[in-house]
Design goal:
This protein has helices at 14-20, 27-31, 40-46, 95-108, 158-167, 183-199, 204-210; strands at residues 51-64, 67-79, 84-92, 111-112, 134-138, 141-147, 154-155, 172-177. The protein is 30% helix and 26% strand. By secondary structure, it is α+β, with helices and mostly antiparallel strands. It folds into 3 domains: 4-46, no CATH class; 51-112, Double Stranded RNA Binding Domain; 134-210, 2-Layer Sandwich (Ribosomal Protein S5, domain 2). Helix 5 packs parallel to helix 6. Belongs to the universal ribosomal protein uS5 family.
Length: 220
């Protein structure tokens, strides 16, 4: 555990204690067991190269009997550009604390995505894209992620593009509908699509053809 900030960390959960003691050294061990990390320090310890990015900061005003109340709603994404990604949003009266809260929640929401070569135009058998077409939704926003040939890049709007980059997906076609100007719903719909991809099972010769890659396998 190279991060000096984690030296003073006192775990509050069983998984946290196992991570602190070195019994668990891979985030996949936790996620694939069906459990969820409940402490952000677990993510910091197991995924030290996790990057953070703000997707949007919105000003929300609400009328209350005591007067007008203003809050900042922040949407963020975290990822290691290698199969681990998390998205979340948080609100608060100040921007700084809202950003920190959103990043912490995004870390606790991380998932392990699947990558592969599901494009019939490509067939290179390298995990540069998604293995198959998937869709996700949140509110009125719907997004479909379709495998693209190697070298195309991310044919997507800014919000899904940033999330896909943090997830480590290199080539994808996208199709969207709904009020995509709503950053939170757009981000969560994209995150939902990636999560749906992780839940699908592929067997037989098709699984061999699309070459689903493991987390940690570099894109060439």
């Amino acid at each position: 555990m190279e991060n000096p900030e984690l030296e003073d960390w006192i775990p509050k959960t069983g998984i946290g204690r196992k991570v602190k003691e070195g019994e668990v050294t891979d985030l996949s061990q936790i996620l694939r067991s069906g459990k969820r990390p409940r402490e952000p320090e677990i993510i910091d310890a197991l995924v030290p190269d996790l990057d953070e990015e703000i997707l949007g900061v919105n000003l929300v005003q609400r009328m209350h009997r005591s007067g007008r109340r203003i809050q900042f709603r922040v949407t963020t994404v975290v990822g290691n550009e290698d199969g681990i990604v998390g998205v979340a949003h948080a609100s608060g009266r100040e921007v700084g604390p809202s950003i920190r809260k959103s990043i912490t929640t995004a870390k606790l929401n991380v998932i392990e995505i699947v990558r592969g070569c599901g494009s019939w135009e490509c067939g290179c058998s390298r995990p540069h894209s998604l293995p198959y077409e998937v869709s996700g939704s949140k509110g009125s926003v719907e997004i479909t992620l379709k495998p693209a040939p190697r070298g195309l890049g991310l044919a997507a709007a800014e919000v899904p593009r940033l999330i896909l980059e943090k997830a480590g997906v290199g080539d994808v076609w996208t199709r969207t509908s709904g009020k995509t100007r709503t950053t939170i719903n757009f981000a969560l719909a994209t995150f939902d699509a990636l999560n749906q991809a992780a839940k699908m099972e592929v067997r037989g010769t098709y699984a061999e053809r699309i070459q689903i890659g493991e987390v940690g396998e570099e894109l060439e």
